[in-house]
Design brief:
The structure is a single chain. This protein has 5 helices and no strands. Helix 1 crosses helix 2 and helix 1 runs parallel beside helix 3. The longest helix has about 55 residues. It is rod-shaped, with a radius of gyration of 35 Å.
Protein backbone atom coordinates (compact mmCIF):
# COMPACT_ATOMS: atom_id res chain seq x y z
CA UNK A 1 0.00 0.00 0.00
CA UNK A 2 1.53 3.24 -1.12
CA UNK A 3 -0.72 5.57 0.90
CA UNK A 4 -0.65 3.52 4.09
CA UNK A 5 2.34 5.45 5.42
CA UNK A 6 0.63 8.80 4.99
CA UNK A 7 -2.65 7.45 6.36
CA UNK A 8 -0.87 6.10 9.43
CA UNK A 9 0.85 9.45 9.92
CA UNK A 10 -2.54 11.21 9.62
CA UNK A 11 -4.02 8.83 12.22
CA UNK A 12 -1.16 9.47 14.65
CA UNK A 13 -1.46 13.23 14.19
CA UNK A 14 -5.23 13.06 14.66
CA UNK A 15 -4.84 10.99 17.84
CA UNK A 16 -2.38 13.53 19.21
CA UNK A 17 -4.68 16.47 18.38
CA UNK A 18 -7.63 14.76 20.05
CA UNK A 19 -5.64 13.93 23.18
CA UNK A 20 -4.40 17.52 23.49
CA UNK A 21 -7.95 18.80 22.93
CA UNK A 22 -7.22 20.75 19.76
CA UNK A 23 -8.93 18.90 16.91
CA UNK A 24 -9.33 20.52 13.49
CA UNK A 25 -12.28 18.57 12.11
CA UNK A 26 -14.34 16.96 14.87
CA UNK A 27 -15.71 18.55 18.02
CA UNK A 28 -13.35 18.82 20.97
CA UNK A 29 -15.96 17.50 23.42
CA UNK A 30 -16.82 13.85 23.91
CA UNK A 31 -15.04 10.64 24.68
CA UNK A 32 -12.26 9.41 22.49
CA UNK A 33 -13.18 6.61 20.06
CA UNK A 34 -11.67 4.98 17.01
CA UNK A 35 -14.35 6.61 14.89
CA UNK A 36 -13.43 10.10 16.15
CA UNK A 37 -9.76 9.41 15.41
CA UNK A 38 -10.69 8.21 11.93
CA UNK A 39 -12.86 11.26 11.26
CA UNK A 40 -10.25 13.67 12.60
CA UNK A 41 -7.70 12.10 10.28
CA UNK A 42 -10.11 12.69 7.40
CA UNK A 43 -10.11 9.08 6.31
CA UNK A 44 -12.91 6.99 4.87
CA UNK A 45 -15.45 5.05 6.89
CA UNK A 46 -13.71 2.55 9.23
CA UNK A 47 -10.37 2.99 7.47
CA UNK A 48 -8.63 2.94 10.83
CA UNK A 49 -9.36 -0.78 11.19
CA UNK A 50 -6.93 -1.55 8.34
CA UNK A 51 -4.10 -0.63 10.72
CA UNK A 52 -4.44 -3.37 13.35
CA UNK A 53 -1.06 -2.67 14.95
CA UNK A 54 -1.88 1.02 15.35
CA UNK A 55 -5.30 0.20 16.85
CA UNK A 56 -3.90 -2.39 19.30
CA UNK A 57 -0.63 -0.76 20.32
CA UNK A 58 -1.34 2.98 20.12
CA UNK A 59 -5.01 3.87 19.77
CA UNK A 60 -6.68 1.52 22.27
CA UNK A 61 -4.31 2.29 25.19
CA UNK A 62 -4.60 6.02 24.49
CA UNK A 63 -8.39 5.74 24.31
CA UNK A 64 -8.58 3.85 27.61
CA UNK A 65 -6.28 6.34 29.33
CA UNK A 66 -8.14 9.36 27.94
CA UNK A 67 -11.64 8.03 28.69
CA UNK A 68 -10.67 7.02 32.23
CA UNK A 69 -9.84 10.62 33.06
CA UNK A 70 -12.63 12.13 30.94
CA UNK A 71 -15.07 14.35 32.83
CA UNK A 72 -18.00 15.60 30.68
CA UNK A 73 -18.73 18.62 32.88
CA UNK A 74 -15.14 19.80 32.85
CA UNK A 75 -14.94 19.14 29.11
CA UNK A 76 -18.00 21.32 28.46
CA UNK A 77 -16.52 24.14 30.53
CA UNK A 78 -13.22 23.79 28.71
CA UNK A 79 -14.94 23.72 25.33
CA UNK A 80 -16.97 26.84 26.02
CA UNK A 81 -13.78 28.67 26.94
CA UNK A 82 -11.76 27.21 24.09
CA UNK A 83 -12.08 28.60 20.61
CA UNK A 84 -13.96 26.50 18.07
CA UNK A 85 -12.07 24.65 15.42
CA UNK A 86 -11.76 26.28 12.02
CA UNK A 87 -14.16 23.82 10.41
CA UNK A 88 -16.81 24.50 13.05
CA UNK A 89 -16.41 28.23 12.42
CA UNK A 90 -16.86 27.67 8.69
CA UNK A 91 -19.99 25.58 9.30
CA UNK A 92 -21.46 28.33 11.48
CA UNK A 93 -20.66 30.96 8.85
CA UNK A 94 -22.22 28.80 6.16
CA UNK A 95 -25.42 28.36 8.17
CA UNK A 96 -25.62 32.12 8.71
CA UNK A 97 -25.10 32.76 5.00
CA UNK A 98 -27.80 30.27 4.06
CA UNK A 99 -30.19 31.83 6.54
CA UNK A 100 -29.46 35.32 5.24
CA UNK A 101 -29.93 34.22 1.64
CA UNK A 102 -33.29 32.69 2.48
CA UNK A 103 -34.29 35.88 4.28
CA UNK A 104 -33.20 38.04 1.32
CA UNK A 105 -35.09 35.84 -1.13
CA UNK A 106 -38.21 36.10 0.99
CA UNK A 107 -37.88 39.88 1.16
CA UNK A 108 -37.32 40.04 -2.60
CA UNK A 109 -40.41 37.94 -3.27
CA UNK A 110 -42.49 40.09 -0.91
CA UNK A 111 -41.27 43.27 -2.59
CA UNK A 112 -42.09 41.86 -6.03
CA UNK A 113 -45.59 41.06 -4.83
CA UNK A 114 -46.05 44.56 -3.40
CA UNK A 115 -44.67 46.10 -6.60
CA UNK A 116 -47.09 44.11 -8.72
CA UNK A 117 -50.05 45.21 -6.56
CA UNK A 118 -48.94 48.85 -6.81
CA UNK A 119 -48.62 48.59 -10.57
CA UNK A 120 -52.13 47.16 -10.79
CA UNK A 121 -53.50 49.92 -8.61
CA UNK A 122 -51.65 52.61 -10.58
CA UNK A 123 -52.91 51.33 -13.93
CA UNK A 124 -56.43 51.25 -12.53
CA UNK A 125 -56.14 54.86 -11.36
CA UNK A 126 -54.69 55.99 -14.68
CA UNK A 127 -57.58 54.36 -16.53
CA UNK A 128 -60.08 56.05 -14.19
CA UNK A 129 -58.36 59.39 -14.86
CA UNK A 130 -58.69 58.80 -18.58
CA UNK A 131 -62.42 58.03 -18.20
CA UNK A 132 -62.97 61.22 -16.19
CA UNK A 133 -61.17 63.28 -18.83
CA UNK A 134 -63.40 61.78 -21.48
CA UNK A 135 -66.51 62.70 -19.50
CA UNK A 136 -65.30 66.28 -19.08
CA UNK A 137 -64.66 66.64 -22.80
CA UNK A 138 -68.24 65.65 -23.54
CA UNK A 139 -69.61 68.33 -21.26
CA UNK A 140 -69.10 71.87 -22.33
CA UNK A 141 -68.42 74.18 -19.53
CA UNK A 142 -69.09 77.87 -20.20
CA UNK A 143 -67.83 80.59 -17.97
CA UNK A 144 -70.17 83.51 -17.39
CA UNK A 145 -68.46 86.83 -17.02
CA UNK A 146 -70.00 89.47 -14.83
Amino acid sequence: MKNSGTALARLRAALERLITGKPKIVSASGKLTLNRINNEAGLGHSYIHKFEDFVKNEANPAIEKFNASYDPIRAKLFQSQEKRSEEEKQKIRLKKEIKLKEQYRQERDDLKKINKELETQLSSLIFRLYELQEQLEDKKIIEIKK
